[in-house]
Amino acid sequence: MKKVGMGRILMLVGICFLLSACGSKDEEVVNNNATSNQNVATNNTSNNSPITSASSWSDFKDKVNAGSFSSLSDSYKSLMTFNYYNQEPTRVIFSFTKCTITTGKLWIFTSRSSSCGNDFTREIDGDNIYRENGLMSNSSVIEELKTLVNASTSNKMFSTTAYQFRSGDFEYIIDLKYPAGANPIYKRDVKTGDSYQIYHQSWL
Predict the structure, then answer these.
(1) 83: Cβ–Cβ under 8 A, 6 or more apart, which residues?
(2) Is 40 left (phi over 0), alpha (psi -120 to 50) or beta?
(3) What is the pLDDT of residues 114-141, one digit of tens each?
């Protein structure tokens, strides 16, 4: 009986030892994963460019009126890095596509079709902004954007940096993550449905 009791005791001690060893390994794995996740989060944060966000429509309007848009020197710095000549170009071209709605009628049926194509560009070269309606300065564009948001009659959040709103007979989207010269990035005629929106950007 004494030999059997001693065997059981040794067996229990062995099991306890194994369990404690497994527990320490599991804890080590969890800690390593937490460290890894923390490093990923830190890296993602450090790589993000500064982008102005808005917490409400009122906050968004205040930022538009203050001209708090991303500039070519912050959000687009990584985009514009050009290593061929060891310099950073100052010109960025934003391309827009325009869609036209055509309405047709056959007896009692009404059809609508959309035709879209590359229609115009907006080019930012320092303080000079070449838009579809001519050459403008950055401050002049901001004044136009201020007029639009201050005359809005309805709005909804499009993203943390953008709002879609109606001003007059048009709907617009202004996005703070783009430079002022690229805005509005979307415009739609409420009556006809014709619209344009940004779809591509390039740099020189």
Answers:
(1) none
(2) alpha
(3) 788 868 999 998 889 999 989 999 999 9
pLDDT at 90 over 60: yes
Mean pLDDT of 181-204: 88
The 10s digit of each residue's pLDDT in 25-54 is: 333 322 333 333 332 222 222 233 456 789
**Whole-angstrom Cα distance, residue 161 to residue 172?**
14
Which tokens sit at 44?
A: 């993602």
**How many other C-beta atoms lie within 10 A of the C-beta of residue 195?**
19
Q: Which two tokens mark 46?
A: 């450090």
Going by C-alpha positions, the residue among 166, 148, 147, 146 that lies closest to residue 156 is: 166
Q: What share of the chain is helix, strand, coil (3-state, %, to 5)?
A: 35, 35, 30
